[in-house]
């Protein structure tokens, strides 16, 4: 159990909220840092509003006295400012506040499987850049790369493929996109374990879900869970715009079969997620 406070960056985000809630139940002292909707300060909990950017004065305040940093902060719209320059500012702030090399806080960072294999996709490249910043920083670090989370796959189906519209009767699904969808709650639980074990572990084995599915199969299961009949038409994701750039990065993004000794494997299936009313939905 950490004795020094744990700083959670992106504490108001989808993953950060789950990590925060779990650590609060275990009475871990926390510093919560985010741009909005933070839990109120209470015994053992300090809330600081701010953004992970180079000139935010609250960042220096947030890192004071912390023993670990959970880095969940990210913005697809502000990748250079938040993810890259913000992480550089974080490293600089931690070194300024902790002059002794022996007492440098460890950083626990959430990343994505295969960011090193598909850096042509802008978001994967930014995540890889952040990984490299941490590796070169001299700070102790742990990096957990995970497969796509269940709520994100549902977002793809609803928003990017158009299934949010109940009147749709045909949908185009990208060909060649293979996934191992993963429960975000299990990702949060693993991140909490990494906080509690109180040591830096470098780059961990990839964390993936228990099922290997094509995007077509995942969409078909989703439609079945809603008792909907929609025709699926496969297409080649060749456009130079999002989301096709993302779909191409996700091509061959999952393997089957896997050596379970070489991966961290989750338990909840895609069907179980869709059938559970208590699941996390975005």
Automatic annotation (TrEMBL):
One Pfam family, short name: NAD_binding_10
Residues of the NAD(P)-binding domain: 10-147
One GO term of the biological process aspect: photosynthesis
SUPFAM superfamilies reported for this sequence: NAD(P)-binding Rossmann-fold domains
Record keywords: Photosynthesis, Photosystem II
TM region(s), chain numbering: none
Name assigned to this protein: NAD(P)-binding protein
């Amino acid at each position: 159990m950490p004795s020094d406070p744990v700083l959670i960056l992106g504490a108001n985000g989808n993953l950060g909220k789950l990590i925060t809630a779990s650590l609060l139940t275990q009475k871990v002292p926390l510093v919560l840092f985010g741009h909005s909707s933070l839990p109120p300060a209470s015994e053992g909990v300090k809330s600081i509003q701010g953004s992970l950017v180079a000139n935010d004065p609250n960042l220096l305040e947030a890192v004071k006295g912390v023993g670990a940093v959970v880095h969940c902060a990210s913005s697809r719209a502000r990748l250079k400012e938040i993810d890259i320059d913000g992480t550089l500012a974080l490293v600089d702030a931690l070194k300024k506040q902790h002059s002794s090399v022996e007492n440098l806080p460890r950083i626990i960072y959430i990343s994505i499987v295969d960011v090193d294999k598909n850096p042509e996709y802008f978001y994967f490249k930014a995540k890889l850049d952040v990984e490299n910043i941490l590796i070169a920083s001299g700070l102790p670090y742990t990096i957990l790369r995970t497969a796509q989370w269940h709520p994100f796959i549902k977002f793809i189906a609803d928003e990017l493929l158009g299934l949010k519209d109940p009147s749709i009767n045909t949908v185009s699904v990208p060909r060649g996109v293979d996934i191992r969808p993963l429960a975000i709650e299990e990702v949060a639980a693993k991140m909490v374990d990494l906080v509690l074990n109180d040591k830096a572990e470098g780059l961990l084995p990839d964390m993936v879900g228990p099922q290997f599915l094509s995007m077509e199969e995942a969409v078909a299961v989703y439609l079945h869970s809603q008792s909907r009949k929609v025709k699926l038409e496969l297409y080649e994701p060749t456009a130079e715009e999002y989301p096709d750039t993302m779909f191409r990065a996700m091509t061959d993004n999952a393997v089957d079969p896997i050596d379970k000794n070489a991966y961290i494997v989750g338990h909840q299936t895609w069907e179980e997620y869709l059938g559970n009313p208590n699941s996390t939905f975005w």
